[in-house]
Design a protein that fits this description.
With 287 residues, the protein is an alpha/beta fold. The chain has one domain: Alpha-Beta Barrel (TIM Barrel), CATH 3.20.20.100. 38% of the residues lie in helices and 17% in strands. Strands 3-4-5-8-9-10-11 form a seven-stranded parallel sheet, covered by helices on one side. The chain has a two-stranded antiparallel ribbon with strand order 1-2. A two-stranded antiparallel sheet has the order 6-7. Helix 1 crosses helix 2 and helix 7 packs across helix 8. It is globular and about 50 Å long. The termini are far apart.
Amino acid sequence: MKIMAPRTKHLLGGTITIGGDLTVSRMGFGAMRITGPGIWGPPADRAAAVALVRHVVDAGVAFIDTADSYGPYVSEEIIAEALSPYADGVVIATKAGFVRSGPDQWVIDARPERLRECAEGSLRRLKRECIDLFQLHRIDPRVPMEESLGALVDLQRQGKIRHIGISQTSVAEYERAKKTAAIVSVQNLFNVEDRSSEDVLEACERDGTVFLPWFPLGGTGSPKHAALKRIATAHGAKPVQVALAWLLARSPAILPIPGTSSIAHFDENLTAVELALTAAELEELSS
């Protein structure tokens, strides 16, 4: 079964180009939640997860972000089941650098030999000859960053990965990483509540690097969340839709990747591209 190329009806959020040659709509999909509880094992309904991934692409979302640690391996396998052979324009990003021992258990391992093993496994599971974007999931404090990224550069030279990104990094680490590899994306925690990566976003804006914010809604109960709820009510929307609309308005470098296991929830998230916040609302949320 060949999946149709992403439609364009939801491109109101505009487009963004990754690495100079991969252009996608500015709403992506994070595929962490299509696994079991604790991001461990298979989902309760695998057929529903496959249907969700197909729906994501049919709805116009062309960028899907996953990792070998999601499951582990389950998310990548479901993506391949849903989308292989892949339609033109579908961009798959995956990550490596964690070892899983159980639900909600995450241990950093970014040794070069481990990353090479992960990349080969991701290629097999995703049924790809080349991974569009391969990201270092975490910098390993026990391994020089240059050695971890050097393994990815070798894989890039071999034609097994197209572009390289890093995740949960500081400006200093980002600048250091650029000396070893051409970094096209950074994936950090960033939302209306937690903007501790503001300086990293600004560095990405300066360099034309794509910024992938994860956990777009953040926690609950803060003054910012009270504002999200009030603004959402004014627009007949939900707080997460306002949070995503704020991210899209915050910077043209941002490519949100909200995740879910539900088609209905995905559709709600996607409507954020059509939500126009006022200047006063944007200022309030950004203050």
